[in-house]
Amino acid sequence: MRIAPPIVIDEATRRELERLSRKRSMAARVVVRSRIVLLAGDGFQNKQIAAQLSVSTRMAALWRARFLEFGVQGLLKDAPRPGRTPKITANAVAEVVARTTQTTPANATHWSTRSMAREAGISEASVRRIWRAHGLKPHRVESFKISNDPDFAAKLDDVVGLYLNPPEHALVLSVDEKSQIQALDRTQPGLPLKKGRCQTMTHDYKRNGTTTLFAALNTTTGEVYHLCQQRHRHHEWLKFLRLIDQTVAAEKQIHIICDNYATHKHERVQRWLARHKRFHVHFTPTSASWLNMIERFFRDLTENRIRRGAFQDLEQLIVAIGDYIDRHNDNPKPFIWTAKATDILEKVTRAQAKRNKRLSA
């Protein structure tokens, strides 16, 4: 006759098991397991426990062994199970991933769940699960351009250094112009937002002129200086620089971060900067406007105030922009730059290597 391994229960463990076996809110399966172990601790064999608790002998033996190995914690949850054998093999999953990333359909630029399901001979839901597990989104595309600036590393380190470690007794301004902002008026009034219906606007519009916004973001406080002009030549750029010069306290040094637009490097601009020694200009690398923090503010302005606005004339647009910036300056919040120059440089270097490899293939 096979004898089950004995269980010796100390007083503290017995109290815990009795508590679990009597607790009303406890899962029924845990209550039964606790009673099995208590009876085993009293010297009962598995067959006797099974008969007394109306369970199978195998179940009594299982939880006796689990308690001996893991203690009380082993009774609270089931052991992990391997689960159902997957119908789609690992090779089939790898094939879907390879087709998604390395090929395109014969009559389209990218795969959809339906076209990939037909190609791979599996369901759309399976394709969707595989894409989600591997982080694939063929329906999405993002624009990019790798900078070819030979001084990319030096300019990157210069600009990021100003963000992360701004100089003392100085003002760091991220400056740029948002050109050709259109005063668009819809041809018909839109319908308001209501339950079951989003806000609507007509697809066509009337153009009522354009303006150019010159803006400078204080990278420390988030405050924005601005000026709207009809054009964006060096004349308007100089006017904006004079505005900054008049607004900022005379004892402050001013560090300006701007892009490589020809207006910013005009001969007259260079002469003006030479006469105003407190201005220090830092240029972002070529094709790297994403490094200019003011672009983040321009995106917010477009999304929150311009894109869904309707302006009957140019003056309304300029007033709306000015009102948005004034309200922003009432409670400004700076954008926090966290990316290190070394991390950005490594990412760009990897992108350049992949691009060169693809061009040479």
Explained architecture:
By secondary structure, the protein is α/β, with parallel strands linked by helices. Helices cover 47% and strands 13% of the residues. The protein is built from 14 helices and five strands. The chain has a five-stranded mixed β-sheet with strand order 3-2-1-4-5, sandwiched between helices. The longest helix has 20 residues, at 341-360.
Summarize, please.
This protein has 14 helices and five strands.
Q: Tell me the distance between the termini.
A: 74 Å
β-sheet strand percentage: 5-15%
Q: In percent, how helical is the residue content?
A: 40-55%
Please report the total strand number as a whole number. Answer: 5
> Order of strands across the biggest sheet?
3-2-1-4-5
Low-pLDDT residue spans: none
> What's the gyration radius in Å?
34 Å
Largest sheet: number of strands, sense, barrel closure: 5 strands, mixed
Shape descriptor reads: elongated
**Mean pLDDT over the residues:** 91
Structure classification: alpha/beta
Order of helices and strands: HHHHHHHHHEEEHEHEHHH
Number of helices: 14
